[in-house]
Amino acid sequence: MITKLKSWLEDNLNSRPDDENELQLDLATAVLYCEVIRADHDLDEQEQALMQSMLMSQFQLCESQAKELIHSSGDEAKHAADLVSFTRLVNARCEAEQKNLILENLWQLAYADDHLDPHEEHIIRRIADLLYLPHSQFIQAKLRAQQANDEKG
Prior knowledge:
By secondary structure, this protein is mainly alpha-helical. It has helices at residues 2-13, 20-39, 45-59, 63-79, 84-93, 96-111, 118-130, 135-152. Helix 2 packs antiparallel against helix 3 (45-59) and helix 3 (45-59) runs antiparallel to helix 6 (96-111). This is Tellurium resistance terB-like protein subgroup 2.
């Protein structure tokens, strides 16, 4: 299933066809983001727009590539039994700074609809644990996202 999806992404995204590792990292990260926006069972347009913007910025994708990645990651997230395969890939390919950026983005996605659902917080906590990020980083990222949300509203 992963091989088939990866092949489809390479054919349709044309983002970096020579860099298989980056493409896998794009998908793994997008699945983690997808898990957070799906956690409250309400796919909000603000969350989806923010996720698209984050993916475009983080992986230097154009709008159509980001939309395709979101679509593919949503399908992958629905069929995934757990988050371990995705976090394992992130752990293998990312430094602590990159993993912290993912954590920050997860919190921003959770606050995008101006409401932190307990399910969103639980998913982010699980992901942070699977990324071997210390609890202090988890809390600091949450507080920064909360403050940024308060300032925008």
